[in-house]
Structures are given as structure tokens and as C-alpha cells.
UniProtKB/TrEMBL annotation:
Pfam families in the record: EFG_C, GTP_EFTU, GTP_EFTU_D2, LepA_C
InterPro entries on file: EF-4 (IPR006297), EFG_III/V (IPR035647), EFG_V-like (IPR000640), EFTu-like_2 (IPR004161), G_TR_CS (IPR031157), LepA_C_sf (IPR038363), LepA_CTD (IPR013842), LepA_IV (IPR035654)
Record-linked PROSITE patterns: G_TR_1, G_TR_2
Assigned protein family: Belongs to the TRAFAC class translation factor GTPase superfamily. Classic translation factor GTPase family. LepA subfamily.
SUPFAM superfamilies in the cross-refs: EF-G C-terminal domain-like, P-loop containing nucleoside triphosphate hydrolases
Segments forming domain Tr-type G: 4-182
Membrane topology category: Peripheral membrane protein
Name listed for the protein in its UniProt record: Elongation factor 4
EC id: 3.6.5.n1
Keywords, comma-separated and alphabetical: Cell membrane, Elongation factor, GTP-binding, Hydrolase, Membrane, Nucleotide-binding, Protein biosynthesis
Species per Swiss-Prot/TrEMBL record: Sphingomonas alba
PANTHER family: TRANSLATION FACTOR GUF1 HOMOLOG, CHLOROPLASTIC (PTHR43512:SF4), TRANSLATION FACTOR GUF1-RELATED (PTHR43512)
Main location: membrane
Length: 602
């Protein structure tokens, strides 16, 4: 295709504003699929969980042909956990459709995505969707787009993706408003690796955006950051059906395969060039993604350990951004320490393991990555280490200071929930950075900005926010770097012995409250023994919370075991069997269920 006939665009929207529905409708209108093939709904969201949760995890691209134009529609993951993937996809486009729900107006993720898009110098075409709804207020939303985002929305397209209204207008606006890509066919090949995934038939499939030059079947290419060379064996695009092509020219988006076995050999953001005639420099902006939230995953049934390992390997085939390594815990046995891009990412992986791989798992409390500045010791020099697991906490005497990651959160909420939300942020060590009102009338909402330690958000912040606002508040965040914090490791001791799986790093100010909560729960969960069991939360040697499980009364036992000898033997046998699933701490048998319950409520 001639370059001035190409348009590359993405769709940005807050969750549920109609991005997937609009994408389906565009595919249908341009003839990518017949009506019969459309019956599946949400063509681009092809993973089961994506469909159920209505979120897109992996970016996909579809080539549409319309009025002699080649339109490459790039679907982007809408959630902040996948911000880097979003950013790569945006870098491959010249424009974006901004879809805003005509009844809901601008929301937190609309804004975050728009700002990213603006940073990439995109031409943004506002689309006010769902105008078929009785509650639709296109005029109000148009004003909101101008007022909050500062975009000219006078020519915003009014559409209903569901009823098929305004679809041709959307296509025409793409052609008219979004500029064609720039690129030079005569320059050496320079293509950006936008995404990659594992396909059982093709091996690793790589999504690329060609900047200059062309990429062809049979070409020897070099991945500049990875430093590897590969022979291209297939070039094509998705319409959304896979279609092979002889080449991808400048400005085009499509896929290549090169007999690559694992996704981990490819790096999103890498530059692909010709091995014989390489470009002089790589494209800007290559960044290694780093997991920011870690937790332990343990099989409830120890026999499932190998199955868990296999399943993690399989999931890794399609997602090089999560990491895992074996971990052993006295309480939970063998499992894995896993790293994720964020909480949603953690939940998705956990859910896929449970659902698709049929595993019953225990998840330890999520932890962020702390930077520990250590003084020198007899054997080691002063150094800074990254701590992913509270169990690896270094000797407190060597800790000079600890830094933790912070985020800036943007929350939109109807006024009536504002008080409760401010309190929640305040309780989580938040620093208020701004409070303004946006929109008017029924659309008016408060926009609150807070700086918060990520550590306070990974526990249950999002759930709490949703419940106190009855689902009306929207939330988004970005990381803003590390700050020093008064952080301590809190250990939980059962009958004077520390239980590794329950230890956590918390702020000194909230440690007591957390510790008390954990002790109270364990008191309920651990059965009585013949002796008194102290349950303590401690920082270093200092106990900050304590509960006691009183001893079973002798006569109760006597009654229970007394009399009938067979009954007594049966009871003992039953106990022995039960023991297999118990863990011993300072002579106290703790049923596995107690750990699971304690952690799940954590
Ligand atoms: P996404 O999260 O932005 O991808 O949103 P979806 O495309 O999954 O749409 C979310 C919900 O809104 C679905 O139930 C859609 O059927 C519905 N929806 C999408 N577009 C329209 C529209 O134009 N009108 C109405 N009434 N509903 C719509
Ligand atoms: Mg969607």
C-alpha cells in the first residue's frame, strides 16, 4: 500500500465505554468478517478471562480495508498494569479514537490514556458512544471532553457501536483527521517490535511496525537490543483472519515469524533491522519491564508442585513480563515466588492457574519491591539490595534505611462518596495533591489526586474503594519513584516460634493495627490444644500485639476420649490422618486451612 493511503490508530477508552464493541463494528463494516463469523462477539478479546472481565490483556492489530485505504486498528490493553505495552502500541500509531460513553462521561482511565496518546503526538478523534441510551448526554460529554481534556470536541463523532449508528462517520474521520505515517522505503530496515505471543502452530508471532525500509520473507534480520539474528519465514497481517503477505513496507503494521521458540527471546520495544545492511541506530524508548508486585504461590496439595511449575511455564510462553522462581516455606511447603506488573496482572495469572489449569492455590500477601540500604558487616561491604520477599529481610542491625515505591493515584468519584474516599487515602498514608470538580449537573464528579505508597495499595485498596463508592469511583495510578519510609518487618509468632509465611513488611505506624488483626484471626483459626498458646506479632524482639488461645480443659478431653475403646482408637486414627495436613510450630499443630484463611483475609 502507498504510504499516504495508510492510517494507523488505536482506540482508547475507559473500561466498558465500548472500545471492543466499536472495534467489532468497524471490522464488520469493512468486511473483515461476515456477519456469521461475527457471532462470537468481541473479536479482539480472545482470552476467556478477557471476555469475562471485559478487559484486553494482549494488544492485537487488525487491518481493515476501506475505500482504498489500509486502516490498521491496534487494540491496546486499557489497564495501568500494562502501561508499557500500551505505550509501545501507541508508539506504533499516528492517531487514536477516544471513545467516551455518552452517559458516563470522562473517567480516570480515559484521562490516563489520553495523556499518553498526547505524549506520542497523536491526532485524537473523539467519539461519543452509546448515544442510543436514554441517559445519553452527548452535549454534556462534548463539553466535558473540552473542559477536562482540553481537546476540540466540536467535530466529535456521535455513535452507537451497539446499534451501528455513526460507524461510517468514524471511518471517514479516521481517514480525514489522522495523518498517514512517515517512512522511507530506501532507508535500511527499522521496525519496532510491538508485541509477541506464542501460537501453537506458528511458534512465536511478533507484531511489528515498520518505520523505514521493508521486511520480507527470507530476509535475515537482527534484533538490536537482544543482539540476535533470525531468518524471517512468514510475513502477514490479521484481517482479523491471518493473511500472509510478501512484505511489510514503511508505515505498515503486521506480523512476522522467524522460528523463535520462546517469547522470552523477544523484547517489546526492540528494533528489528536488516542483518546485512543494518540501521545506524535503534529506535528510542526501549525499556525492560520489571515486575513491581511479588507474592508466593503454593499448591494447597503438595503433590501439585510439578503441575504448578508446568502451568507457570506454559503461561510464561505468552507473557514474558511475569517471573517466578522456586521458594520454600516451612508453613506452606514448596511453591514459587512470582513477580507481576501490578495487582490486576497478579489476579489474572492466579485466576488462569485456578481456572485453566485446575490448581488449588495459596497466595501469600502481595509485597512490593523495597530498596534496602545496608551498612557494611564483617563479611560484606555496604550495599543496596532489592527485597522481594519479607522472608529474606536482612539483619535489622545492618539496615541503614529502607525505600519503598510510591504512586500518584487519580480518583474520580461522585461527591457523596468523597469523604469516605479521602479518609481511606489518609489512612493509607496518602498525601493529597489536588481536589477539583469536573463536569456539571448530573455529570459532576470530584477528581482527587493522591500520592500513596504502593505497599498500601497492593493489599485491598481497590476493593475498599469500590465498596465505599458502591462501584462508582474510578481509579488509576502511575509510579512516581522511591521514597524513604519508616518500614519494619512484622513477624507472627505462634507459641514463641515465627511463622515465615505470615511475616510482612509494613509501616511502623500501621504495624500494630495489622498485627492485632492477624493475631485475632489466628486465634479464631487455630484449634485449642492441651496447653495455652500465645500468638504474637512482633517487630524485632518487641511484641506489639498478642492473643492467647486458652488450653483445652482436661475433663473435656477425658469425656471425649473416655469410655468406648474403639471410638477412642478411631478418633486417634482420624487425628493421625489429620496430622499430615498440619504444620507444627512450637508444638502447635496449625491446620493448613488456618494459613489459607489467614492469608486470604490479609
Ligand atoms: P470496553 O470495555 O471499552 O471494550 O467496552 P465493551 O465494548 O466491552 O462494551 C461494554 C458494554 O457496553 C457492553 O455491554 C456493550 O454491549 C455495551 N455497549 C457498547 N457500545 C454500546 C452502545 O453504543 N450503546 C449501548 N447501549 N451499549 C453499548
Ligand atoms: Mg474491551
Amino acid at each position: 500500500t502507498k504510504i499516504d493511503r495508510i492510517r494507523n490508530f488505536s482506540i482508547i477508552a475507559h473500561i466498558d465505554h465500548g472500545k471492543s464493541t466499536l472495534a467489532d463494528r468497524l471490522i464488520q463494516r469493512t468486511g473483515g468478517l461476515t456477519d456469521r463469523e461475527m457471532t462470537h462477539g468481541q473479536i479482539l478479546d480472545n482470552m476467556e478471562i478477557e471476555q469475562e472481565r471485559g478487559i484486553t490483556i494482549k494488544a492485537q492489530t487488525v487491518r481493515l480495508t476501506w475505500n482504498g485505504y489500509e486502516l490498521n486498528l491496534m487494540d491496546t490493553p486499557g489497564h495501568v498494569d500494562f502501561a508499557y505495552e500500551v505505550s509501545r502500541s501507541l508508539a506504533a500509531c499516528e492517531g487514536a479514537l477516544l471513545v467516551v460513553d455518552a452517559a458516563q462521561g470522562v473517567e480516570a482511565q480515559t484521562l490516563a490514556n489520553v495523556y499518553q496518546s498526547i505524549e506520542h503526538d497523536h491526532e485524537i478523534v473523539p467519539v461519543i458512544n452509546k448515544i442510543d441510551l436514554p441517559a445519553a448526554d452527548p452535549e454534556g460529554v462534548r463539553q466535558e471532553i473540552e473542559e477536562i481534556i482540553g481537546l476540540d470536541a466540536s467535530e466529535a463523532v456521535l455513535a452507537s457501536a451497539k446499534s451501528g449508528i455513526g460507524i461510517d462517520d468514524v471511518l471517514q474521520a479516521i481517514v480525514d483527521k489522522i495523518p498517514p505515517p512517515k517512512g522511507d522505503r530506501d532507508k535500511p530496515l527499522q521496525a519496532m517490535l510491538v508485541d509477541s505471543w506464542y501460537d501453537p502452530y506458528l511458534g512465536v508471532v511478533i507484531l511489528v511496525r515498520v518505520m523505514d525500509g521493508a521486511i520480507r520473507k527470507g530476509q535475515q534480520v537482527k534484533f538490536m537490543a537482544a543482539g540476535t539474528t533470525h531468518l524471517i519465514d512468514r510475513v502477514g497481517c490479521f484481517t482479523p483472519k491471518r493473511t500472509d503477505l510478501p512484505e511489510l513496507g514503511p508505515g505498515e503494521i503486521g506480523f512476522i515469524t522467524a522460528q523463535i521458540k520462546e517469547v522470552s527471546e523477544t523484547r517489546v520495544g526492540d528494533t528489528i533491522t536488516d542483518a546485512k545492511k543494518p540501521a545506524s541506530a535503534a529506535l528510542p524508548g526501549f525499556k525492560e519491564v520489571q515486575p513491581v508486585v511479588f507474592c508466593g504461590l503454593f499448591p494447597v496439595d503438595a503433590a501439585d508442585f510439578e503441575k504448578l511449575r508446568d502451568s507457570l511455564y506454559k503461561l510464561r510462553l505468552n507473557d514474558a513480563s511475569f517471573s517466578f522462581e522456586t521458594e520454600s516455606s516451612a508453613a506452606l511447603g514448596f511453591g514459587f515466588r512470582c513477580g507481576f506488573l501490578g495487582l490486576l496482572h497478579l489476579e489474572i495469572i492466579q485466576e488462569r492457574l485456578t481456572r485453566e489449569y485446575d490448581l488449588d492455590l495459596i497466595t501469600t500477601a502481595p509485597s512490593v519491591v523495597y530498596k534496602m540500604h545496608l551498612t557494611h558487616s564483617k563479611n560484606e561491604p555496604a550495599q543496596t539490595i532489592e527485597l522481594h520477599n519479607p522472608a529474606d529481610m536482612p539483619d535489622p542491625n545492618r539496615i541503614e534505611r529502607i525505600e519503598e515505591p510510591w504512586i500518584e493515584a487519580t480518583i474520580y468519584t461522585p461527591d457523596e462518596y468523597l469523604g469516605a474516599i479521602l479518609k481511606l487515602c489518609q489512612d493509607r498514608r496518602g498525601i493529597q495533591k489536588g481536589l477539583t470538580y469536573v463536569g456539571s449537573g448530573a455529570h459532576q464528579r470530584a477528581q482527587v489526586k493522591y500520592e500513596l505508597p504502593l505497599n498500601e495499595v497492593v493489599f485491598d485498596f481497590y476493593d475498599r474503594l469500590k465498596s465505599i463508592s458502591r462501584g462508582y469511583a474510578s481509579f488509576d495510578y502511575e509510579q512516581i519513584g522511591y521514597r524513604e519510609g519508616d518500614l519494619v518487618k512484622m513477624s507472627i509468632l505462634v507459641n514463641e516460634e515465627p511463622v515465615d509465611a505470615l511475616s510482612m513488611i509494613t509501616h511502623r505506624g500501621t504495624a500494630e493495627q495489622r498485627g492485632r488483626g492477624m493475631c485475632e484471626r489466628l486465634k479464631e483459626l487455630i484449634p485449642r490444644h492441651l496447653f495455652k498458646i500465645p500468638i504474637q506479632a512482633a517487630i524485632g524482639g518487641k511484641v506489639i500485639a498478642r492473643e492467647t488461645i486458652s488450653a483445652m480443659r482436661k475433663d473435656v478431653t477425658a469425656k471425649c476420649y473416655g469410655g468406648d475403646a474403639t471410638r477412642k482408637r478411631k478418633l486417634l486414627e482420624k487425628q493421625k490422618k489429620g496430622k499430615a495436613k498440619m504444620r507444627e510450630y512450637g508444638n502447635v499443630s496449625i491446620p493448613q486451612e488456618a494459613f489459607i484463611a489467614a492469608l486470604r483475609m490479609g
